[in-house]
Design brief:
Length: 493
Amino acid sequence: MTLARFKMCIDGQWVDALSGKTFKSLDPSSAEAWAELPDADQADVEQAVQAAQKAFENPAWRNLSATGRGKLLRRLGDLIADNKEHLAQLESRDNGKLIRETRGQVNYLPEFFHYTAGLADKLEGGTLPLDKPDMFAYTTHEPLGVVAGIIPWNSPLYLTAIKLAPALAAGNTIVLKPSEHASATILELARLALEAGFPAGVVNVVTGFGPSTGAALTRHPLVRKIAFTGGAATARHVVRSSAENFARLSLELGGKSPNIIFADADLDSAINGAVAGIYAASGQSCVAGSRLLVQEDIYDDFVERLIERASRIRIGNPQDDASEMGPMATAQQLAVVEGLVADALAEGARLRLGGKRPAIDARGWYYEPTLLECDSHSMKIMQEEVFGPVASVIRFKDEAQALAMANDSQFGLAAGIWTRDLGRAHRMAKGVRSGIVWVNTYRAVSAMAPIGGFNNSGYGRESGIDSVLAYTELKTVWINLSQEPMPDPFVMR
Ligand code: NAP
């Protein structure tokens, strides 16, 4: 098969790695190489960061009004809409995500850029009602400088958009490092950013591996903010790197989100919500509802109906419109899933569905929708993120026990609550320690709704009205109105 060949985007130019090294990206549905990309090392990262710093100081960007930045973002959103089918196909090819899912995400992507474009010129500072009559003071929101965006492989375009749009709206420049497993669409996004009219160097993309390319970027002294999405182990490296020059951080990490089904719920909806939570995207979603907590009165019925629905999921080529579940994005991830299921069975979990690779005519990294029944919430499979199509289900007695189980986790990214009782919905939403709570729905996203986690799911929020502020510094300006000479220099004014 002929390989697609990509170059990186540095300072508005399409370049190979200075070393000439490349790496191959594999198609998850066939396990075969389909693309070749530059393998950036420290020297390439240096060029990208220097280009971003130069662009940050370039009057063409620095002096562009906030309204002007908004216009460019709006144009970028329009270009994404014009190229949506190409982007959706490319992402599905690269990371094995279902074409119907990538189409859904890409169709919505322009909204993020349009919404954030509208925020660019609403970054108002304030005038301060000072307690010093001879002084006037005001605040302004200033861009930070060079931002590093570190992106995982599961939803690269979406997870880039929620960093790129606010970073640019605030007047920063950015160097993006996508996962080596899914870089193609981020390079396309950079191409569209250039076409939209962003000056050279404002958006740069370096491709390569985490421990080399990613680490060189996150420890670079000119990087003023790191917007990271990925796993906790990598995040710890990133936090250490940031300590060198106190780069700002946002960390969107993993989860073990509870999907809590009460006996009074609409069961048809709750079953669809459970399927959406854990089997959509083959479970490779940070907000996967991987812990199913089900009230004992309906437990047996719920489990039987869930098995019936999940066993009808059509597993197949992600680029086939009829497929409902595609492969794992990487061979390593498939091995992780198999290992965690084996550990769960050894610990006493009962396998009710799946637990193996499907018998389909493909060499890709497929895994069946899997359901494990657990008697104890302290089992490893109830506590650790799988990042695959594996749900563990457990029964609970009442609201108090459901809440205790829900909060018995190192994570706190999302939670689903299924009930018709309004009071219970609000009590549970208040009690659950997570950044997102969905009541009678699951996996809903909006440009207007902040996402982010409690506890080990990270810190900082992306999307929503405050998302642009997270890419700014607050500056306070003091003006002395007095006509008197400066008083005693040894006393604080
Ligand atoms: P990962 O291994 O932590 O990788 C994330 C990114 O970090 C990739 O671009 C990776 O590059 C890079 N990286 C690896 N080592 C690095 C280092 N030493 N310094 C700097 N960058 C480095 O995570 P993943 O396996 O790709 O993604 C799965 C995780 O992301 C899960 O835990 C999931 O829950 C989480 N996630 C969270 C959200 C959210 O919004 N909260 C959304 C999606 C995913 P390479 O891939 O090239 O190694």
